[in-house]
Amino acid sequence: MKLGTRGSRLAQWQAEWVRDRLSTRGVAAEIVVIKTRGDAEVDRPLHELEGKGFFTKEIEDALLAGRIDVAVHSLKDLPTQLPAGLALAAVPQRHDPRDALVGGTSLGALPPGTRVGTSSLRRVTQLRYLRSDLQVVSLRGNVPTRVRKVETGDGCDAALLALAGLERLSLAARATPIDPLELMPAPGQGALGLEIRADDRATRDALRPLGDAASASAVAAERAVLSALGGGCQAPVAAWVDGQRLFGRVTAADGAVQHTASAEIDPARPEAAGEAVARLLEADGAASLLAR
């Protein structure tokens, strides 16, 4: 079995994790590194690039062509609409979905004018809503590179990153987790998505033991918010599940307006909660914010 992944340290850690879990079940797998557009175009923020699937399209192309059997994604990077012929086979147990601050003890404690780096429009808009006195700067690169830039003061004084990625690379001690109701995560953040060809039953069966039902339900609800609002992975849409309650959020590009809504999750139909939250956000004016 061939596992396709990006070439960053984090992406390879994730693919190695899947390979090792398969190995314990007697399934041999090798890792195939594939360069994506998001890895190649690092001179601009992602939300300024046209299209979707910046970190997934080339891997999905290899999957459709039969060059790999499984695409190992950070689920937050995977568009909600998959290409024809592909399917999400498993969502392993999710890591901590929260965002984290590198270079400070809390967002509230950062001095005015602090340069905060991020490559995510979702984080940019929420940060502008919370602290319009901070200076938001574009920060691209892999996780260790972004942490190093903060520590050396190379273009930024602090940075916002996914806590799960920091944990996986043993860098979490350098960061402070942020309350999800203060800075809400991306839909699916902290989870892996294992994508296959829809008709590949053997691979689906091999991956099934790696799936976690609770994690799959939570991310299905979160991703349904994004899908129902018609937003891409780089849209300023946030979602987070706390127990059996789903929260969703849309923030204006300038941070002037922010809408948050929530709904209870029916475990039998998690996507319904995402659609309900999306409708509540639209009723508050979220559609006009996304259109702008």
Description:
- The protein has 10 helices and 13 strands.
- It has 292 residues and is of the alpha/beta class.
- The chain has 3 domains: 1-94 and 191-211, 3-Layer(aba) Sandwich (D-Maltodextrin-Binding Protein, domain 2), CATH 3.40.190; 99-177, D-Maltodextrin-Binding Protein, domain 2 (3-Layer(aba) Sandwich); 212-292, Double Stranded RNA Binding Domain, CATH 3.30.160.40.
- A 5-stranded mixed sheet has the order 2-1-3-10-4, with helices on both faces. Strands 7-6-8-5-9 form a 5-stranded mixed sheet, with helices on both faces.
- Strand 1, helix 1 and strand 2 (30-33) form a beta-alpha-beta unit.
- Helix 8 packs parallel to helix 9.
- The radius of gyration is 18 Å and the shape is globular.
- The termini are far apart.
- The mean pLDDT is 93.
Topology:
Layout: E1 2-5, H1 9-23, E2 30-33, H2 37-40, H3 57-64, E3 70-74, E4 86-90, E5 99-102, E6 115-118, H4 121-130, E7 135-138, H5 143-152, E8 158-162, H6 163-168, E9 175-177, E10 192-197, H7 201-207, H8 213-229, E11 237-242, E12 245-251, E13 258-264, H9 270-284, H10 286-291
Parallel strand pairs: 1-2, 1-3, 6-7, 6-8
Antiparallel strand pairs: 3-10, 4-10, 5-8, 5-9, 11-12, 12-13
Helix pairs in contact: 8-9
